[in-house]
Amino acid sequence: MASRKQRVDDGPSDEERINAARQALLEGVGAEVAASFPGITRLGGQLIAALYLADIPLSMEQLSVELGRSKSNVFGNLRGLEAAGIIERRREHGARFDTFALRGKYPDVIIGAYVSRLRRVVQDKRALSRRALNLLGEARGAEAEALRSRLGDLTRKYDLFADLMERLLPKIDGPVDLEALLAKIPDPVLQAFTAAASAAWAAGEALAVAARLGKRSARTP
Length: 221
Hints:
- This protein is mainly alpha-helical.
- About 75% of the residues lie in helices and about 5% in strands.
- A three-stranded antiparallel sheet has the order 1-3-2.
- One of its GO terms (molecular function) is DNA binding.
- Keywords: DNA-binding, Transcription, Transcription regulation.
- InterPro entries: HTH-GbsR_regulator (IPR052362), HTH_MarR-typ (IPR000835), WH-like_DNA-bd_sf (IPR036388), WH_DNA-bd_sf (IPR036390).
């Protein structure tokens, strides 16, 4: 009884605290990656966290043991992470098996993968909206005009997004050191950008409210 009371008074042991912190990171990164990259499960994010904490390349078997998951599940997620440009496969001279490591520092590799994926999505949707416009061609009628207007608006927006990404986001296939990039931007420039973004957001909200009010008044007899 005394030893149990002493344990309660002392709180969690160092090992318990370490395990709790480690598990929190594994679960958090797992949820983040699964929500952001289609085809990669929570296990994929946990693999990223495990490689980050290990700070050395690990084999598929080591990762399987570390996370208590089957090799088949680990392998499938490793392939997805490799395709996303987050990890890389290595084979040391004379080694009988591959090892896996992050392509760069964490979270730089995640940021780089986000940027690359966002760039691909914008370009794909830009091409899709243009293709749909071409297929519509010279079709006539109210329905065709409505569709043409929607597709034209969509194309304009994706063109704008693509242009903005070309101006602001680096063309890097790999990790993006966001901390280093931000450190190189003078504070007055960041402040001006923040103010401009806030003003644009406020203007957009005001226009949206005005549009809703206009539609509501138009429906009122």
